[in-house]
Amino acid sequence: DTEVTQTPKHLVMGMTNKKSLKCEQHMGHRAMYWYKQKAKKPPELMFVYSYEKLSINESVPSRFSPECPNSSLLNLHLHALQPEDSALYLCASSQAEGRSTYNEQFFGPGTRLTVL
Amino acid sequence: ILNVEQSPQSLHVQEGDSTNFTCSFPSSNFYALHWYRWETAKSPEALFVMTLNGDEKKKGRISATLNTKEGYSYLYIKGSQPEDSATYLCAFGKMKTSYDKVIFGPGTSLSVIP
To answer: Which of A16, B17, B27, B43 has its Cα between 20 and 30 A from that of B1?
Structure first.
């Protein structure tokens, strides 16, 4: 199974709502990533988890809260978002093998988020 | 600020044409260069990961070269087919621990006209 799944595919939420994005992989990857992609822009890294520990937070506002409950799951909790947070949110995973191996990332199809 | 640039921004070719595009990246602190293909409504799919200066990789009709000293990589598609239509992203690896932190370029959008 080389698939990364993301749910939901589409999400519309108001600025006062709380919602969560989910990502799952069963490839045994121990590095998982959240990216944000706006139209006609490249994906921008938000968070990296390595061995279920938060390794990188790219100065993301606190209204985005990541969680890695186990090695297969990655969540992104959303609260009090702004309309400018509307974007495609991509999850990815890769093997975590230390400094000597450079690994491709496997991406999910993304969640298209619209904040009203 | 690290800039990863790609050119051209978009490209339209006839079926059967061969084509190539460029990724430019900082030549210092290089770890790896990734190429991804992203078809509309699908997930980005890894094509190549290259780490050594002079690396050449090939997958079917698609190949890539790497020059880390001058900071560029070329992606070549031989005999383009409509199914090659996608956005091609390169990503510069600037850090390697137990995860791969990469910076994506803006992509080259390829349309292959039947």
So the answer is: B43
Q: What is the pLDDT of residues B3-27, one digit of tens each?
A: 899 999 999 999 999 999 999 998 8
| CA A33-A50-A23 angle, 5° bins | 40
Inter-chain touch A45–B107, beta carbons under 8 Å: no
How crowded is residue A12: how many other Cβ atoms within 10 Å of its Cβ?
13
Helix (H, G, I), strand (E, B) or coil at A41: coil
Tens-place pLDDT, residues B77-90: 999 999 999 999 99
Pick among B3, B42, B43 to test the A interface (most A CBs inside 10 A): B43
Rounded Cα distance, A98 and A111, in Å = 30
Q: A–B: how many Cβ contacts below 8 A?
A: 71
Closest to A91 measured CA to CA, from B44, B33, B111: B44
Q: Which residues of B touch A105 (CB under 8 A)?
A: 34, 46, 100, 102
Chain A contacts of B66, Cβ < 8 Å? none
Residues A61-98 as b or e (16 or more Cβ within 10 Å = b): eeebebebeebbebbbebeebeeebbbbbbbbbbbbee
Verify whether the Cβ–Cβ distance B97 to A41 is below 8 Å: no
